[in-house]
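Let's see one such:

===
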Amino acid sequence: MSDRTTLPQDLPEQTPAPENHPTQPVSGGGISRRGFLKGAGVTAAGSALLEGVQVFSHEAVAATRNGVKEYGPGAVPVTLTVNGKEHTLQIEPRTTLAEALRVHMGLTGTKIICDRGSCSGCTVLLDKTPINSCMTLAMDAIGHKVTTIEALSSNGGLHPVQAAFVKHDAMQCGFCTPGMVMTCSALLDQNPKPTEEDVRKATAGNLCRCGTYPRIFAATLEAAGTTPRNA
């Protein structure tokens, strides 16, 4: 027995397949079964590709016809009104308002803690309404007025809520404080004379991991000129 390995080029020439063999070309210039399968696969892939192109083109035309402007996926110019000033940024459409404020504008008073809308530490005001900026796209703030903790004070002095927080020591680690202050100040704008129950309801979505809620309630009521219970 030879120990020589047989290579493809050493194989004897194969005998042509009989007429009824599946791979035998049909008369009249037909193609083999293998060729047919290859061709069918290419045709199917090409059809799918063309279909995808047609669908994409159709959607693009429909979007244009309906007056919908498409953005991205790269950075695009966006103009936001933040703390009374217009700021033009180059950001990706997926950028959240919190990221735009902190990373692109340097307004780091807004904190990103959970980054999923469960703690409200990133609360800012959108047209005077408290929102979670980590769950809001920056592009959704176009045409609205955004207010952050940096603009809450005026004329070099603290906002009444900020001053009351300092007086009542209503913070410990401080991470929740900006969002809590924004929520409480918004409450006083809408309801200048809240009860403690009103403050509890307003801050129900703001999580304080240090547990300083009693002091937060007391500070907010004092800022409103209301005497808290059990004071």
User: Anything to note?
Assistant: Residues 152-231 form a domain with the DNA polymerase; domain 1 fold (CATH 1.10.150.120). Strands lie at 76-82, 85-91, 123-126, 129-132, 145-147. The two ends are 105 Å apart (CA to CA). The first strand starts at residue 76 and ends at 82.
